[in-house]
Amino acid sequence: MPVTPELLDRLSAQLGPAGYSTDPDVIAPKLVEWRQRWRGHTPFLARPSSTAEVAAVVSACAAAGAAITPQGGNTGLVGGQIPAGEILLSLDRMTAVRAIDPNNDSLIVEAGATLASVHQIAAEAGRRFPLSLASQGSASIGGLLSTNAGGVHVMRFGMMRDLTLGLEVVLADGQVLNLLRTLRKNNTGYDLKQAFIGAEGTLGVITAAALKLFAPVISRHVVLVALASADDALTLLARTKQSFETLSAFEIMNARSIALAVANVANVKAPFDTAPAFTALLEFESLDGLGFADRLETFLDRQLQDRLITDAVIARSKAQEEAFWKLRESLSAGHRTGTPQANHDISCPVSMTPALLSAAHATAQELVPGATIVAFGHMGDGNTHLTVMAPQEMSQDAFPRDAISHSIHAVAVGMGGSISAEHGIGVARKADFAAFTDPLAIETMQRIKHALDPQSIMNPRAILPEGPA
Length: 469
Ligand SMILES: Cc1cc2nc3c(=O)[nH]c(=O)nc-3n(C[C@H](O)[C@H](O)[C@H](O)COP(=O)(O)OP(=O)(O)OC[C@H]3O[C@@H](n4cnc5c(N)ncnc54)[C@H](O)[C@@H]3O)c2cc1C
What we know:
seven-stranded antiparallel beta sheet, five-stranded antiparallel beta sheet
């Protein structure tokens, strides 16, 4: 249904001058996705400052049958936050801390708060929120929940779904569903919050969340390791897990991903004189740090003697730790170039990662001879970010992006994996989501969607194909 002038008048009156904009210059940055792959349009940007205002916006849209696209920090990588004519509902003014209880290890915060600000709030209370990713300066709690974000510490702490105790959600009819509990144990019927986590704004608007906090890290150790192959990386991962309980990140980066980050991102340096096939970043946390550095050195020496690794460098200062992480966090920006490319966020059982990498490489070469592969990611949890880059002379039009993605996704699914490990479906992965998912699972999701949003006004273009109620 088109957005009517009457609806816009009603929304403007409800929100007041600070709570909305129709100015194209104000709205423009919210209409383009980070990789510039999707550009959108909207007649109206709503910027409510409270749950009551979100509820008023959603009620008015429901009464008018007008669709809504929720948006947080606009760092999503599958296009679900970019409107195509819907009302754009930004949570960017809802950043308040509602409660913090260090003795219960819990924090209640509004959905527009950035992840970086949540880190800061937790640290000030002597606690820690462990989710960590390169977009944390902009990504919001509502967006992280709606995409069930992962990041670099999943192997130790899990994804957003695992880190959430409760939610507050404005439903598609404008009612407020208050599930803001801070309990570890609560077996009272269906765990409704899980329906909204990972729903990408298709079932309601998340307005606040109760998050789990943890003890702060006293001692952190970060290492970069040079490896000749992905198989060696897998063996190193297994040996590391056997020797240390506190491995919190095991990230791998292929040579191409590092070369592009060094070439295209300021202040990023190659860690080794001769580029290895793979570099792994290992992070360990310990509560006291006693004797840990010695144990780590002994362990790495043994791997060098066994020729499992070809080199290793341990961060000796906070600045060096940050430089190692900066390398890892610059990889996405490093290959955000004009070169035609197909980006993937796939997962498989951890043990299959080397096989996945070589099968994906062979598939890409078959479809586009001369293509190069940028591969990096969270080997510790089986998630690989894999980009197929066109050879230099190939144009955007000639690059068979969809065919490549379909084939790479088929490789992942064939190995028991997923076409979307942590970014979601959005609009980017809809066709392959439908192609690779059990039809009964899709139908069950459509029934849930229809029950909660019968008019299909909540982010109607994301995730699900149109289908039976
Ligand atoms: C450089 C870079 C690195 C990244 N690294 C990682 C990574 O390691 N791991 C990872 O998981 N992701 C990563 N991402 C992806 C992205 O940061 C996450 O998907 C993040 O969770 C999106 O948060 P956001 O606030 O920007 O959401 P947006 O992009 O604004 O929205 C994402 C989706 O959530 C919906 N939504 C947003 N807010 C709400 C709300 N309050 N209620 C209901 N629906 C809502 C939107 O409609 C959209 O469908 C990365 C992105 C970039 C640019």
